[in-house]
Amino acid sequence: MDDPFVIAGQSLSSRLILGTGGAPSLDVLAAALVASGTDMCTVAMRRLEPTTRGSVLDVLDRRGVRVLPNTAGCHTAREAVLTAQLAREALETSWVKLEVIADDDTLLPDGAELVEAALALVADGFTVLPYTNDDPVLARRLQQAGCAAVMPLGSPIGTGLGICNPHNIEMIVAEATVPVILDAGIGTASDAALAMELGCDGVLLASAVTRSQDPALMAEAMAAAVVAGRAARRAGRIPQRWHARASSPLGGLVES
Amino acid sequence: MELTVNGAPRHLADSSTVADLMTSAGATGRGSAVAVDGVVVPRSEWQIRRLEPGARVELVHAVQGG
Which residues of A212-236 are buried (b: 16+ CB within 10 A; e: fewer)? Predict the structure, then answer.
């Protein structure tokens, strides 16, 4: 592979990371997973319900997909650290998608708690991939804390509003020394392509696929968008201009 | 003895181990983990770790999520 996607020394074959939340069934999830070509999916940790049937892990393990546990729903660093530690024990991975949210309406990250949790988890040997705001300064703090990637939101989780502040995403990319993964807010394929064109190293999305009308088809679209956006980024787009610039020769025109 | 499992009161035989609790909950496979009083109990200690009366136990597993 001439353009490897590497996080914490681990090479991933796809720049699309799929969240498993929101899928109406495990069968639908499995079809979307295959269509996406992803090799890493997130899962959440929740209290065991005796009525649970089937396991998302069976779906992921059967296809050899890497499991990335998250700390979704945690409101404090303390909750997030315990959830990550439980996930490490349950799933035998020290990787964690760190989420510490401020409230249940916005689901926006709480920066102070996020940094505190990141510091604690890095010290405890975790490979920390934090879900963060589109804030270049907070992204810098997370890198300084030793995070293996930074994962800024495009817009709030589940909104499908796309990338509300592309300039901030570019600023995060410009100064990042770890992979930048656009996480949350993606609505459709052009959003994913834009993330890659802005210089992100990968895209993490769930609802855009799992809650679409045809999750497998949307997963296919997202996979293509990520590949296209990455290629466009590497190819180097033309600068934007105010006035037109002809591509046909200016000389040699006929006269009438 | 009485203890709290996932926020609900629970009665267990005296000197039950974490392994006993996990077995009764059907949570012995990959994807499950347990914390007692806010501290994770490693799988390797489930058999030897006895639960104390009044313990607060969190028993979790992996589910679909973002």
Answer: beebbebbbbbbebbbbbbeebeee
With a threshold of 0.90, tell me whether the complex ipTM lies above it. yes
Q: Is it the case that residue A52 has pLDDT exceeding 70?
A: no
Closest by Cβ to B60, choosing from A46, A50, A67? A46
Enumerate the residues of chain A whose CB falls inside 8 A of the CB of residue B6. Answer: 47-48
A1, pLDDT greater than 90: no
Catalytic residue flag (residue A164): no
d(CA A174, CA A172): 6
Q: Which of A97, A141, A230, A233 is catalytic?
A: A97
Q: Do A43 and B65 touch (CB under 8 A)?
A: yes
State whether residue B56 sits within 8 Å of chain A by CB.
no
Q: Are B62 and A206 in contact (CB < 8 Å)?
A: no
- Contacting residues for A216 by C-beta, under 8 A, at least 6 apart: A28, A31, A32, A34, A35
Nearest to A192 by CA among A151, A149, A223: A223
Q: What is the mean pLDDT of residues A123-133?
A: 98
